[in-house]
Amino acid sequence: MMRIVCRISIGLMVLFGAAGNISGQEPDRIIMPHALHHDAEVDCATCHDGVESSTSALDVFRPDMDVCADCHDVDDDEECAMCHTNLDNAGEYHRGTFGASRFSHALHADGGLDCSTCHGDPASAQPVLPGKPDCRGCHETADDYADCRMCHEEKKGLRPASHGETWVSGHGLLAREDQGLCAQCHTQATCRECHAGDNVRPRSHRLNYAFDHALEARGNELQCATCHQDPDYCSSCHIAERVLPWNHSQSGWVSASGGGLHTTEGVFNMESCIACHSTGAAEPSCARCHGGN
Description:
- This protein has 293 residues and is mainly alpha-helical.
- 43% of the residues lie in helices and 0% in strands.
- The protein contains 17 helices and no strands.
- The model is unreliable at 1-23 (pLDDT under 50).
């Protein structure tokens, strides 16, 4: 028993002793005052030489001491402390990982983009790595993530950390809250791959939705068109079930003399007609009278 207690005590002493050494040797961090350099009219390329010709995000452009020495006295602790947080433990800067390894600074520079377009204004805040919203300022979302592959390697997965194992079953709540967030990566084609079948319906599509959807469809056609972009999707069911618009049941809608009420409707609201009768006079319901002409 005494041996176990001694071993535990020794282990705790080693643990707390190591913690003390770690806390006494805080790792050095380099926080460059970009605003100060910006005010001094120092151009980005002065410190980040070669960035405008780089074709890989794996390239490192943090300046070494020789670059600093062009303007600063590197033997003066006060000047070094402008960027280094711990001069007693100064070391090399450890760069974090960046997923878009194929990102090309050269292409963006040739396109006339300034550094601040992606990294922010150095006069007001520390530069940051661009996120997906920054990319969407110029690049449109493409099917099958084709636009993402311009910068991300083919073999690398693009699934964000937020998309865990239960994401598929629970993503609807977040999608309804902020569809713009989804659209940063996904087009409507991505949604329709799963939601086109009868097994996955929006919550607005109740069991009796086929009978009462007309009220919502008339008030919000754009929302319907999010999924049902082809007018034939509507007309094919309406024709098969002999569902007619309300005005088609009016007395005198079709008349042998003068065409009836539908003639006036066709003159002033042809868009409404071709929503169902997309082939014009050749439409079977029209051809009976118009003869396909």
